[in-house]
Each structure stands twice: as structure tokens, then as C-alpha cells.
Amino acid sequence: MLIYVSALNAATPDWVDSYGVMTPYNPLSYITGYAMENRDESDSQESVKVRALADLSKKIKVQVQSELIMQEEENQGEFRSAISSLTKSSVDTTINGADYLIHQDRKNSYALAYISIFKLQEQYSREAALLWTEILSVRHEADNLVEENRSQDALRLLYAHISSFYGAL
């Protein structure tokens, strides 16, 4: 992890003056996050890095799940149908290997977290491949259990690994 700290007497970087908008990193190649914190806070430098990383992570991935439920029934010759929709969104990110620029003035600590989009793509591709391998392995093991007439064991196995299946969506 690279951390660059600018001296108190140094000129204020553009990324500080622009609240993280103008960075030295091409937005087509990097994702950045910005944070500022009062230096009176204990451990403001670590805290501002965590907040900058949180800001960066908000820009990466939003997962939206939507479910459409359709119900139909017939009662004494009458047909009824209903459709309902459920949408849930959540932020789910893991970022490893972000670097930081740190600047401090007399009152505040500033941090700019940055990471290469290419590096993130490599990380997520590796994680997806590992997850897919795990899912296929569990599925194969469950299929073997079903062939052995052990359906309950297969269901328990699949249920135990359900978080892996949902994580893959």
C-alpha cells in the first residue's frame, strides 16, 4: 500500500481544494474516494483513510435484486390474478490494495483513496472464478448425494452453502 503525505507547509493539492473532484488520476482508469476530517479527532489520519475508502467503495457496485410474483386462482368460475414486485438494493464491495494520498493542514486531515479499475477487475474476476468453482463443487456433491438416494443430505448441503449461491447473483 502506497501512502503519500504532503507536508504542512506544502501547497494545497488540487484534489483537496476541489473536494476530491480534480485528482491526478484519469477517471477512465481509476476510481477515487475523498474524505476530510478535523485533526482534533484522535487518529484522524487513519479515520480519514477509512472514510475515503468508503467513499470510493460507494462508486463501485450496487446490486439490485428484483422479484416478480404472479398469483392466479380460480374460484367457482371466477379467475383472479395478482402481480407483486419486490426490489431490494444493497451495496456489496470488497476493496483490497487501494492506495492513498494524504494531506494535512493546521485544522484538517484529507485523504484521497484511489485504485486502478484494471486492478479491481482482476480482483473481482479472481473472486468470481473461486466462487464459481465452489458452487460447481457443491452442486456436484449434492447431485452425488441424490443419486445415492440421500436427498435430505443433499438439501442440507445446499442449504449450508446458500450464501455462496446468493453471493454469485
Give the low-pLDDT segments. none
What is the global morphology?
elongated
Number of strands: 6
Strand order of the largest sheet: 1-5-6-2
Q: Find the structural class using helix and strand composition.
A: alpha+beta
User: What is the terminal separation in angstroms?
Assistant: 30 Å
Number of helices: 5
Helix content: 25-40%
- Major beta sheet, specifics? 4 strands, mixed
Strand content: 25-35%
CA-based gyration radius: 24 Å
Give the mean pLDDT: 81
Q: How many domain modules?
A: 1
- What is the N-to-C order of secondary-structure elements (H for helix, E for strand)? EHEHEEEEHHH
Could you list some keywords that capture this structure?
169 residues; alpha+beta; 4-stranded mixed sheet; two-stranded antiparallel ribbon; elongated
